[in-house]
Amino acid sequence: MPIVNYKERNGIILQLGIIGMPMVGKTTIFELLTEGASKAHAGGGKANTAMARIPDERIDYLSKMYKPKKTTYAQMEVVDIPGLSPGAERSSSVFLDNVRRADALLMVIRVFDNPSVPIFGDSINPIKSIETINYELLLSDLDLIERRIERINGNKKKNQMQEELEVLERLQAALEDEKPLSSVELNDKQKELLLSYQFLTIKPVLVCLNMSEEHMHSHDFPQRDEVLSYCKQRNLPVIEMSAAIEREIAELDEEEKQLFLEDMNIDEAGIIKISRSMYERLGLISFFTVGEDEVKAWTVEKGAIARRAAGKIHSDIERGFIRAEVVEYKDLKELGSMTAVKEKGLFRLEGKEYTVKDGDIVHFRFNV
Ligand SMILES: Nc1nc2c(ncn2[C@@H]2O[C@H](COP(=O)(O)OP(=O)(O)OP(=O)(O)O)[C@@H](O)[C@H]2O)c(=O)[nH]1
Ligand SMILES: [Mg+2]
After folding, report:
1. From the CA of 45, how far away is ligand 2's center (Å)?
2. Which atom of ligand 1 is nearest to the CA of 241?
3. Inter-residue contact 47 to 96 (CB < 8 Å)
4. What is the CA radius of gyration of the chain?
5. How many Å lie between the centroid of ligand 2 and the Cα of residue 83?
6. Where are the domains of the chain?
7. N or C of the chain: less Cβ packing under 10 Å?
């Protein structure tokens, strides 16, 4: 499991950083994810940042059902991170700083073949690209660890820092072995110790293979098996998509889009897979609140109890929590109305220690 500091992030929006070699489709995917959002086009080597809504067909459905004044999807912030310059002495600080800030990384890898887009390096080589990018992140962590170890060794109170030193040395060994820090088994106390370092290779990574139209049609590309098994061995989730196709269909309405995807032999748009996969990787779930005013998706970590979920909405609701009225989305969808759900006895009252599930529709009773 990745080390994620939920405590620190409570109330803060998730940030997904898009990284990759030059000219692989990063900005195209950024634009797709943040379609329609107001964008802060930074320019001058700075990162572009914008909000992206996390597509969720459950929210689409609930919104049709309740016809609320407002429909709110879960959101994330997406950053199009420039400045990865493999082969240079060091990656730019713009690159590293932005990676450091991100909660998760989308690694865009070029698979598409397009004679009019220059290739970085000698040829299109997904495994080599993944290795090169990982190496940049690894070097940055190694650098940090070496400096810290040096400082501890030179410290008069070195004896009191034995535990930290031991962990750092284990991490150093992993990095020297070209393994990301996320692969190192640590206990909770050790994880706590490390949170302050903001290492890069503990961040959850999704690999996005940016394929061409022909690849999508045939569900294949050169060395696909090798690439997939390479990622599997390293516990890297993979999303196969074509940014170019998705850009083409972005203008279409939902129905046309679906037809087009079917025609292209694609089960689901890549950008939907990206947000779902990121949620999974970060151990997050959504619960919903519904009504005539608003239908809304809320994000909490898996395992969150009802009181905490209430606190996402308002601290008053957390403090004055009485009961959570819970209905499962799948029951509501199956039975078609809240009345039918209640008649079937599928409406529950839960206490503050109840563990919220993905897809719960919740109404909190509280008093202040
Ligand atoms: N054929 C094809 N071309 C693509 C695809 N995705 C992106 N391109 C093209 O590749 C070029 C680079 O795309 P960008 O999205 O700007 O790539 P980038 O990674 O942001 O590039 P830099 O920011 O310059 O490093 C553009 O001309 C895109 O139209 C794809 O899936 N298929
Ligand atoms: Mg770009």
Report:
1. 10
2. 31
3. no
4. 23
5. 10
6. 14-281, 303-366
7. C
Q: Helices 126-153 & 224-233, crossing angle to 10 degrees?
A: 20
- Those residues whose C-beta lies under 8 Å from the C-beta of residue 206, and which sit 6 or more positions away, are 104, 105, 106, 107, 236, 237, 238, 239, 274, 277, 278, 281
CB 55 within 8 A of CB 271: yes
Rounded distance from Cα 28 to ligand 2 centre (Å): 7
**Residue of 18, 24, 120 best suited for mutating to test ligand 1, as the one with most atoms within 8 Å of CB:** 24
14-281 against 303-366: fold identical: no
**Residue nearest atom 4 in ligand 1 by C-alpha distance:** 244
- Rounded to the nearest angstrom, the distance between the alpha carbon of 24 and the centre of ligand 1 is 5
CATH, range 14-281: 3.40.50.300
Tens of pLDDT, residue by residue, the chain (368 residues): 444 544 444 555 789 999 999 999 999 999 999 986 656 665 566 788 999 989 899 999 999 999 999 999 999 999 999 878 766 666 678 899 999 999 999 999 999 998 888 888 778 999 999 999 999 999 999 999 999 999 999 888 888 888 889 999 999 999 999 999 999 998 988 888 777 888 999 999 999 999 999 999 899 999 999 999 999 999 999 999 999 999 988 888 888 988 888 888 888 889 889 988 988 888 899 999 999 999 999 999 999 999 999 998 999 999 999 999 999 999 999 999 999 999 999 999 999 999 999 999 999 999 98
| 237 Cβ below 6 A of ligand 1 | no
Pairing of strands 70-72, 75-80: unpaired
18 in Cβ contact with 29 (< 8 Å): yes
25 lines ligand 1 (CB under 6 A): yes
Spell out the CATH class of 303-366: alpha beta
* Residue nearest (by alpha carbon) to ligand 1 atom 9: 25
Ligand 1 atom at minimum distance from 245 CA: 31
For residue 211, give the 3-state DSSP assignment.
coil
Q: Which atom of ligand 1 is nearest to the CA of 212?
A: 32
